[in-house]
Amino acid sequence: MMVAMRIGVMVGFSATGARSAGAVDLAAQVELAVRAEQVGAQVCFVSEAYGYDAATPLAWIAARTSTMELGSAVLQIPGRTPAMAAMTAATLDALSGGRFLLGLGISGPQVSDGWHGVAFDRPLARTHAYVAAVRAGLAREQLRVDAPGLHVPATPGEYRPMRLAVRPRRADLPILLAALGDRNLELTGEVADGWLAVWAVPEQLARPLARIEAGRVRSGRSGSFDVVALVPAALGADVQACADRLRPLAALYLGGMGTVTQNFYARQAERLGYADATRVVGEHFRAGRLREAADAVPFEFLDATCLLGDEARVAGRLAAFAEAGVTTLAVAPMAGDTEQRLREVGTVVRLAGEAGL
Description:
Helix content: 40-55%
Distance between the termini: 12 Å
CATH architecture: Alpha-Beta Barrel
CATH superfamily: Luciferase-like domain
Strand content: 15-25%
CATH topology: TIM Barrel
Order of helices and strands: EHHEHEEHEHHEEEHEHEHHHHHEHEH
Largest sheet: 8 strands, parallel, barrel
CATH class: Alpha Beta
Structural class: alpha/beta
Number of helices: 15
Strand order of the largest sheet: 1-2-3-5-8-9-10-12
Number of domains: 1
């Protein structure tokens, strides 16, 4: 069933930025986000991995925009205590005039352990407790947490629990979760107000959305739920050339965001039917053969999960995402410069409007 779908922009971490110093021009990313509001983008999501953080650019973008919502996609759970996440969310929501969406994610084992120094242990229980603690913090309740890797107060016999010292603009600001596996999807339905989907195929969204709905039913949650698809995009007449612009990004996720046995994005691609190709991408990437890894990403995978090619092809994929139940589509343009990326965002906004999405 077709749903109303708003169009946003996604900026931040990129494949090139992960592998070469200075390849991500942060000022250009912020400029793209600011100007995207002017061409009709209704929301901006900023990502982080192990480069620039998300919160700082969001504050900068908030100061230069006035209408579009601003979301993290994501603030990494291993990188912040729930108290710090609540403080950051309250701050960004206050500075933006109530436009902030708190996107959270457990990240992956490589970034959690190899960068943040936090063991990737019992991620579901940790996420459940973390979201509850963030909500308690925003509600100005005394913070008490006793969960895997999360103990507040850490020394309960000596120190008392504390509460947020300021009154948030919105104690109930939306919390969205990035999730891939079935159990994590059900947890998202149980505790969150929205889902951040990556490398999503609209024709195969029925199963994850059913898992989310099962979690919502089990927890008794009701009301609106934001299904956010974070979608790489490359527009142009030559669809193969467009796909080539996205191959390094896909290769990084399929081959570099984890280990041989623990890469959630690779498992996602396998579930979508690309197990053999994903294995080859991973082998090349881990051996340092980045060009070969990118070349091994199947065109069909990119065509299914991204916006590729001319306006007719893109319009068709936009309709497919809306038909599948996506309520927000955030475009991550992978063109050469800010002007071209802005044109691509504007084109997607226009095509969605012309289709009545």
